[in-house]
Every structure is written in C-alpha cells, then in structure tokens.
Design a protein that fits this description.
By secondary structure, this protein is mainly α. It has one domain. The chain has 3 helices and no strands. Helix 1 packs antiparallel against helix 3 and helix 2 packs across helix 3. The longest helix is centred in the last third of the chain and has 34 residues.
C-alpha cells in the first residue's frame, strides 16, 4: 500500500466542497422557474426542456447531499479538512 497522501485527501475534500456548494447557473435556474410556473401552457419542446432541467436539478441536489455527507464523515476523521 502506498504511503498516506494528505495532499490527495485535501484535493478530494476541495472537490467535495465545490460539489456540496454547487448552484445552477442563474439563467438555468430562472428558466426552470419560468417553465415550472407556466407548465400548463408549454409546447412539446418546452415540456422536454422542463423535464431535462428538472432532472438536472434533481441530480445536482442528490450530488450535493452525498458530497455533504461524505465531507461530514471526512471531517470527523480528519478535522483539519474542515477549513476552520
């Protein structure tokens, strides 16, 4: 087994922090909101767009929850990763 690499662990934690703090770009978020608010009057293309954006938002939300859970576990074991 190779020696323990703290720099690799810190890079992993930084990546998890970016995922945990991710937000949809404002334009996508506004488009998703508009499509959601007007779903009764959407045409077929717009309905597909709404479904795709909703799937994207759901996937990113799941990624964020998982990243936060892993970060919590990591910082319990390696408190120096918390950035505090």
């Amino acid at each position: 087994m190779p020696p323990f690499d703290t720099s690799l662990l810190k890079e992993c934690a930084a990546t998890l922090h970016r995922v945990a703090n991710y937000r949809l770009p404002q334009a996508l978020d506004q488009r998703l909101l508009w499509l959601s608010e007007n779903k009764e009057s959407l045409n077929g293309t717009q309905r597909q767009e709404l479904a795709a954006l909703a799937d994207l938002a759901d996937d990113r939300s799941l990624d964020k929850v998982q990243a936060r859970a892993v970060l919590e576990r990591l910082t319990r074991v390696y408190p120096e990763l918390s950035g505090k």
